[in-house]
Amino acid sequence: MSVAAFGYFLSAGVGGVSGTQIPANYHAYGVAAAIIMFLAIMTSSLGTHRAIPWLVRPAARAGRGSRSNPLRDIGRAFSSRSAIVIFLAGMFYSLAMGMAGAMAPYIYGYIWVLKPQQISILFSA
Description:
This protein is 66% helix and 0% strand. With 125 residues, the chain is mainly alpha-helical.
């Protein structure tokens, strides 16, 4: 999506203004991204819908009724040091990738003075 964003949606600018600085360009990109995400979700769910009868059902838990305590399940999941390490690593990775994705247009556009088409080529590599 980044290639499409910088190569098509955010590339058109007026005069000397880059397309990344025009708020209307982000609206068109957001609509296109929403449509693509919806189609991807529907395609994957419809494609796997026929496999539902063959999925393995989890065993019923022994205890009070059929409901479990979600807080107890979370506590049980985080009682393992390995689970905590994996959770924290995933959290820091997501934080770093979010920051990198948010800062990329500014770094490439203002520090490296690249045009949106050049950023698109960079993201496609």
